[in-house]
Amino acid sequence: MISKIDKIKQELALKIITNLEELEKFRLRYLSKKGVLNQLFEDFKLLKSDDKKQAGLKINELKEFISEFYTTHKNNLSQEATHTTNYDLSLPGDFQNIGSRHPISTVKNEINAIFNRLGFTISDGPEIEDDWHVFSALNFPPDHPARDMQDTFFINKTPEIVLRTHTSSVQVRVMETTAPPIRMIMPGRVYRNEAISARSHCFFHQIEGLYINKNVSFADLKQTLLFFAKEFFGTSTKIRLRPSYFPFTEPSAEVDISCTCNGKGCNLCKYTGWLEILGCGMVDPNVLDYCNLDSKIYSGYAFGMGIERIALVKYQVKDIRIYSENDVRFLSQFSPVL
Ligand code: DAH
């Protein structure tokens, strides 16, 4: 009996089944009523009880092997059959709804890329910040209105933990931990306790820029911003700097770009011919010292722009609320990302 089983095993080891016809022959030979397995079980009944234990084990092993062999081949062959016979390869493919990038991401990526080309690397900081990084290290006097409840979302009063109101807080983190030269841009989301309207929101996005080195001048700042404006808005773009005030820069300026109406005056520029895009200035020596950089050795410039504002100028979307409403009718107008 044992040698008979071994012989069947050898026979099976050489079996190759390539189609359903061969598989049916296999089934008839091994698994049918009068097949090899049933015949073995018949023979088994006639064995002496001493021999039954070992033979029983072997037959069961063989049965399992044959059943598995059969089902695996059956599955493979039936899958193959559907693949080869049920597919119409001339049918057009299913339409894939791939969506599009959010305009804020597109604008952010484009700004990042322009500054990357000038050697600026990207840095990041937390949205929940302490008073030091958002205000104190940036030279805000203790009674500055920006610290007020009306402008800032407070998480905790003492110690003061806030939702950052601007990405300038990342400047401080970078200066505290990096040795100059520093050439970085810092994109991120910011929060302000403002009434939501077409022109303002309680959260929006900014990109901060910072360059710290020896002998950095205002001319470096102006040239960098002119390069950016021409790259982003087109080569014929002009810029204009107006004196301004920020606690963390001295001198400070606001930057306008020329409107596409070429000074003729339009609704977008409110008939001035200019569009405000960002704030900037030379980093105040106090800020450098607060961040443990020697203001007698180093100087630098900084700038900050609102991404929604830049997107407004680029796409002329006049209601800031639409950026965060997830309305597919708005979002699907922006070209798909392939
Ligand atoms: N932090 C300013 C704001 O949120 C923007 C800004 C102005 C950033 C001037 C700067 C800068 O780095 O130099 O309005």
Description:
About 40% of the residues lie in helices and about 20% in strands. With about 350 residues, the chain is an alpha+beta fold. The strands form two sheets. A seven-stranded mixed β-sheet has the order 1-5-6-10-9-8-7, sandwiched between helices. 3,4-dihydroxyphenylalanine binds near residues 166, 168 and 280.
First-to-last CA distance: 67 Å
Number of domains: 2
Q: Could you give the count of β-strands?
A: 10
Bound molecules: 3,4-dihydroxyphenylalanine
Rg over alpha carbons: 37 Å
What is the oligomeric state here?
single chain
**General form:** elongated
Instruction: Classify the fold: give the CATH topology of the largest domain.
Output: BirA Bifunctional Protein, domain 2
The overall average pLDDT, rounded, is 91
What does the largest sheet look like?
Answer: 7 strands, mixed
Number of helices: 11
H/E series: HHHHHEEHEEHEEHEEEHEHH
Poorly predicted segments: none
Structural class: alpha+beta
Question: How would you concisely characterize the structure shown here?
Answer:
It is built from eleven helices and ten strands.
Question: Secondary-structure blueprint of this entry?
Answer:
Layout: H1 2-13, H2 20-31, H3 36-45, H4 49-85, H5 103-117, E1 121-122, E2 128-130, H6 131-134, E3 154-156, E4 161-163, H7 168-177, E5 182-191, E6 203-213, H8 218-233, E7 239-246, E8 249-258, E9 274-283, H9 285-290, E10 299-306, H10 307-315, H11 328-331
Parallel strand pairs: 1-5
Antiparallel strand pairs: 2-4, 3-4, 5-6, 6-10, 7-8, 8-9, 9-10
Helix pairs in contact: 1-4, 2-4, 3-4, 5-10
